[in-house]
Design a protein that fits this description.
The N terminus is likely disordered. This protein is mainly β and about 425 residues long. The chain is built from one helix and 31 strands.
């Protein structure tokens, strides 16, 4: 093994203070080069920014309380000789600057062509907790923990792992996954080719993916989420609004205290234990809703609608499917009305005895007969041509219950 070790002690200059340099030969034409820069006076007050640009490789950041910054750059080289290995390092040299007037630490590559083949680079940063980050890598992962400040991240082909952060966070990757946990602030994240998971966090979340799944767990705040080719899962969310759109996946939401809007072009929608106003649409799947308090507005172009324990306004329609809704009643909620409509399917609704509904039911179709309209609540039924109508009241009905189907059966049962 050949090993060179140099210790530096320099005064502050434009270039960073290099305190350690090591070159080591390993087996199988592999070499290892490591250099460390230290800046003892970088304060822990949010005034400084760390800027990475024009570099490749993984970046690992760890924040700590108190002043002082340390940057370690590790190069792993594959070359036939030591001379060629050192040349590769020299040709892909990384420059570290301390610009005191700008309160900036800058790390960048020496040449426009970035790195040579055969050189893999890793960056490890130990920073004051209160600091701003602007990190861009052309091909690596970014792993950040314990930072408070403005953080902007870009990687062309890696994953993000962001933990225990406070402040405005922007992260974008062209081909990796994003994991976010224990963060607080304005969070904007995007991936062109991976999944996104955000857990145990508080803030405003703007999330997008071109071809992956989105998952939100145990969050407080508002969410705006969209994906072109994946599913969206939400669980234990508290906020004012949740908006989600997907072109090719399911939407699943459970234990939500917020108003929800959702749209999918080719998947199912499954809702459970929602406290808020719900407005969802799918072009090609079923809608299942359970324990909704507030309102439910939903439409599917090709699927069934199944609702259980729905308290509040209901407006449900399907172009080709059945509707089954079990209503519940809370007299403290004033905005009540029910509209169930299918152009090709059956309708079943279960009405509590205490709910004062005013029933207006209609069936259209050449095969319509008297027996297609069944109700535990007495109705005045009439048959005219291919149209059957039924009207009636329960408890001096003041809440509209409008039922419409074509070529189907309507069944009204009472608890």
């Amino acid at each position: 093994m050949i090993r060179f070790l140099i210790i530096f002690q320099l005064s502050p200059l434009l270039f960073g203070q290099k305190i350690f340099e090591e070159f080591e030969k390993e087996k199988n034409n592999k070499y290892y080069y490591k250099e460390t820069y230290r800046f003892n006076k970088i304060p822990d007050n949010g005034s400084y920014t760390i800027l990475f640009e024009g570099i490749e490789g993984d970046i690992k950041v760890r924040g700590h309380a108190g002043a002082g910054t340390e940057i370690t750059i590790t190069r792993k080289i594959r070359a036939t000789t030591e001379k060629k290995a050192k040349r590769l390092v020299s040709d892909s040299k990384i420059l570290v600057y301390h610009l005191e007037d700008d309160q900036l630490i800058q790390v960048r590559s020496n040449k426009k062509n970035h790195y040579k083949r055969g050189v893999n680079t890793e960056f490890e940063l130990k920073l004051p907790m209160n600091i701003n980050l602007n990190l861009k890598t052309d091909g690596g992962d970014i792993d950040v923990t314990d930072i408070r400040g403005e953080s902007i991240f870009r990687t062309s082909g890696g994953d993000f792992d962001l933990k225990n952060m406070i402040g405005r966070i922007e992260a974008r990757t062209s081909g990796g996954d994003i994991e976010v946990s224990r963060v607080e602030g304005l969070i904007r994240v995007h991936t062109s080719g991976g999944d996104i998971e955000i857990v145990n966090s508080d803030g405003q979340f703007n999330v997008s993916a071109s071809g992956g799944d989105l998952e939100f767990l145990h969050l407080s705040g508002n969410i705006d989420a969209q994906t072109s080719g994946g599913s969206i899962t939400l669980k234990n969310i508290e906020g004012k609004s949740v908006g989600c759109r997907t072109s090719g996946g399911d939407i699943r939401a459970e234990d939500i205290s917020a108003n929800i809007t959702g749209q999918t072009s080719g998947g199912e929608i499954n809702l459970k234990s929602i406290n808020g106003f719900v407005n969802v649409t799918t072009s090609g799947g079923d809608i299942i809703a359970e324990k909704i308090t507030g309102s439910l507005t939903c439409h599917t172009s090709s699927g069934n609608i199944d609702g259980d324990e729905i308290i509040g306004l209901v407006d449900a329609s399907t172009t080709a499917g059945n509707i089954e809704i079990e209503l519940s009643y809370d007299s403290s909620i004033k905005e009540y009305s029910f509209n169930l409509e299918t152009q090709s399917g059956d309708i079943f609704t279960l009405v509590p005895k205490g709910i004062p509904v005013n029933i207006d039911a209609e069936i259209l179709g050449e095969t319509a007969v008297h027996d297609n309209l069944n109700s535990d609540i007495p109705l005045n039924i009439s048959l005219t041509g291919n149209r059957i109508t039924g009207v009636g009241q329960n408890q001096n009905g003041i809440i509209p219950l409008r039922l419409r189907t074509t070529y189907g059966v309507i069944t009204i049962e009472q608890e």
